[in-house]
# Entry
Amino acid sequence: MQFPESWLREFCNPPLDSAALAETLTMGGFEVEERRPVAPPFTRIVVGEIKEAEQHPNADRLRVCQVDAGQGALLNIVCGAPNARVGIKVPCALVGAELPPGEDGKPFLIKLGKLRGVESQGMLCSARELGLNEDHGGLLELDADTPIGADVRDVLKLDDALLTLKLTPNLAHGLSVYGVARELAALTGAPLKTPAIAPVVTSFADVLPVKVEAPELCGRFSGRIVRGVDTKVVTPAWMVERLARCGQRSVTPLVDISNYVMFEYGQPSHIFDLDKIHGGLTVRWGKAGEQLKLLNGTTITVDEKVGVIADDREVESLAGIMGGDATSVTDDTRNIYVEAAFWWPEAVQGRSRRFNFSTDAGHRYERGVDPSRTVQIIERITQLIVEICGGEAGRMDDQTLSVPEAVPVTLRVERAARVIGMPLTQAQCADALNRLGFAITEGEGTLTVTPPPHRFDLLIEEDLIEEVARLIGFNNLPTTAPLAPITARVRPEAQRSRFAVRRSVAALGYQETINFSFVEAHWEQDLAGNANPIKLLNPIASQMSVMRSSLLGSLLQVLKFNLDRKAPRVRVFEVGRVFMRDDSVATTDSTVRGVNQPMRVAGLAWGDADESRWDGKPQRVDFYDVKGDVEALLAPLVPSFEVAEHPALHPGRSARVLVGGKAIGFVGELHPRWRQKWDFAQAPVLFELDLDAVTARPVPVAQPVPKHQAVERDLAVVVAEAVTHDALVQAIRATTAAQGLLRDVTLFDIYRPQPLRDGAVAAPGALAQGEKSMAVRLSFQSDNATLTDEQVEPAVRAIVEQLDAKLGGRLRG
# Structure
């Protein structure tokens, strides 16, 4: 909401300067987002009248003008503007004048000089040269009655300020200059000037037949016929200026009048060309398939959920949002129909967004417009039409069907004091509410308020408490120290912070991303196997319709975004919340019934395993690279990995991650099906882990340094190809005779036999096809003494027997 400060002061003019006025509005809940001057600073620019204009002797596009600038003698000024002609009054910069800064940021100083051999004693200015707007097509022409020699800043009121208010949706009563003035009067105590709107003298009794079929759409409809208007007149300069300072360009006189009154009082209206209406008007809900060409040139198709105004043949207007092109006023219009209505906010909300545009009218109606002033607004519009365009007004037609009922709200003074946090008396509360013009009934410690029709936001007691607080002044509230003791929340030593986890992943070469928690529905089916995700009732986009139960889809989308921009190597991660159905979850301060919301950490690696380097050939990242990253992230915890399947991962190149025997996530390569669907040249490797498991950190326990040397034995065990390293290590550690002495098991070699040539015979004792040799180093140690061969050899034999019994393994000959 933008408007000039001078317009606001016409309704309410408190004894405050511009900065203090803006601060008062902001502290009263009407945030002044910006306050800026109408025009940049400049000096010695006056009103001049061109008395003579002759062709420049040495230039085709220049003219030599004799200008009366009130200096006693005519000034000789060379000008190249196409509209420089005798008789017009324009801004004239005298010698020594300082114009607003140009593109170089430096002020432009007017000096006495020559243009093509002709002396120029000043400069005639365009609107752009004065910093008023971007129009530089010619000189800025002033009204014919503007006094010669007057300061242009005074003539055009350029010392005014433009206020831009940032209003929350509950402040619909502040979407007009009068509405803001009403609040300013309550905040400052300055008198509010409410101009009387006298009824226009009517010349005939004709009315346009209007039928309201949907009272739940339109609660009140007012209108009047005006005949014999002249639409070719020029909108008065004062109205054009005010509209421009509200951010609205001038269109035609009738449209300008409608817009002006909307900014003035907050009530949108619409003007129809009466002669283009077929029969009467009907206010109803749309019908499927009906089409309407709007004033902005767009043709839309309505349905049963969109309100319309139709005549006997077709739809003519989109109710509360925008009029139709078929009945728009033109230069040939002579008879008009002026309409102002109350549209229920619920019937207008969201309709503009359906058609991908918004209007000032829709912005106001969907927040709530005062239903009690439609007749007065039409009287004000008619008054301006008759003054500017002429014509004769007909009888007012006003239909009231269903308007909001004022429901009294009771304020308890004791509760208001407790919520606001300062002692309050009933008189203080009553004074604050009286200043707002509310009808109040006082009781024993209570105040009952009947909300006025322009206040749609007063529904519960807390709304009245807010009004009392802002009228008293938020800056006047006492500063009270908290009563409860403030104690630092100490994190247990066995847990690290989420920030520490982020730093750990970043230290591994990953970059953090932050993504929406709502994703495409097919991601859940494809990547998480979730056929019943949590759906959003009102998604911000059609493709972001469900809540995610996995972070993998978001990371793949980030990868796709980067690859489309030729990224050679991608390492990304995210720490975020996922959402899954769980009937065991109850509603608390931090949970929602039926929805489990755990935190996860997920990462993705794509491209070369290392950055480009000169001393080796780059290798693509694989499962083992990311598996190592997972181990580093979980350290000092030692995870284990087991073969498992995941909907998003390659069935032969993925594993479940376990810590202490409990599954905490997955790591693996993207499934070939999804790699092809996402069009990746190579498969990324991903991991996703429960954050609680990652933040867990065992507390170190002091252990004595071994006093005796360890004894090592190397074994080369022949086993079947299907035997895994994990199975081999588990079998060795499970040997009873070795427990208490065995400290470590390290795999240091794997050997597989070469395929035999045709006719060749394997050597005795050689490995057969389908077998492999796994060489491990066993480390034995005792805390009491150095181990001897007699102590170690039985343990080694027991291990060999255990491997033979469990895995079918034998020592390699």
